[in-house]
Amino acid sequence: MEEKDQLQSRQWKSFSDRSRTMNMGTQALKKLNYPAVTMLLVLMAAWYFGAHVYNKPFVFPYFEVVMGRIGEALTDLAVLRAIGITMRRVLLGTLYGFIIGLPLGMAMGFSPLIMKTLSPFVNAVRQIPTTAWVPLAIIWFGLGDGPTLFVLALHGVFVIILNTAAGVMDINPEYYNAVKSMGAGPVEIVKDVIFPGALPGVITGIRLAMGMGWMTVV
Q: How far apart, in whole angstroms, are the C-alpha atoms of residue 102 and residue 176?
């Protein structure tokens, strides 16, 4: 009797696992962006037939040749190592920009005085092209990862500052009054109101900083 119950229990568990897997697959299909996938397939087909009709691989390479080269590159250890180094630089540069930009953005968004004091300098410095910083970065940090990380952090810090400040300024002032009425101090206000309220802006700033970092790292 016990063996029969154990067998039924295992069968039911197996059935439940299969059902859960099928439900996950169904949900993934529902979330799939079919218009984007269709557009991608159309572009791939246009590339394939267009390249063969034009028949000048040097100007318009064949789709299958390019895909084959990409597959070869993804199996080359030297290419994978270079991709890993680039990803590490982008992540570190974004992290340094986040460490500097988060407190500055929160302070600028919370205090009108700090905003008036720092915003002219932030707006002035962030207009300088990235390429103008490269010679100075090499002089200051030498060759290696130093100049790259400096430029990446500098390129992302202003995006994080502006988005964080905007997130803090969007917080309803009634939230400050509510926590103050309950005896909250400065630390509690930052921890329970400012940081959670500004989190959407912070995440947006990090996402944009990483995207800009990929363009800058080249």
A: 20
Q: Name the residue among 203, 201, 195 with its Cα closest to residue 166.
A: 201
Quote the CA–CA distance of 22 and 14 in Å, as a whole number. Answer: 12
Dihedrals φ, ψ of 105, to 5°? Answer: -65, -40
Dist CA 188 CA 193 (whole Å):
8
Query: Which domains occur in the chain, in start order?
Result: 17-74 (no CATH), 84-216 (1.10.3720.10)
Tell me, what DSSP letter sits at residue 26? H
Q: By the 8 A CB rule, do 203 and 105 touch? A: no
- Categorize the per-residue pLDDT at 43 as very low, low, confident or very high, splitting at 50, 70 and 90: very high
Q: 3-state DSSP call for residue 57?
A: coil
Q: What are the structure tokens assigned to 122, written together?
A: 């932030």
Per-residue burial over 158-195, b if 16 or more Cβ lie within 10 Å, else e, is bbbbbbbbbbbeebeeeebeebeeeebeeeebbeebbb
Q: How many CB atoms lie within 10 A of CB 109?
A: 25
Sign of CA dihedral 157, 158, 162, 168: positive
Amino acid at 152: L
Q: What is the structure's pLDDT at 15?
A: 46
> Phi and psi for 186 in degrees, rounded to 5?
-60, -40
Q: Which of 177, 160, 174, 171 is nearest to 194 (CA)?
A: 171
Task: Output the pTM of the full model.
Answer: 0.71
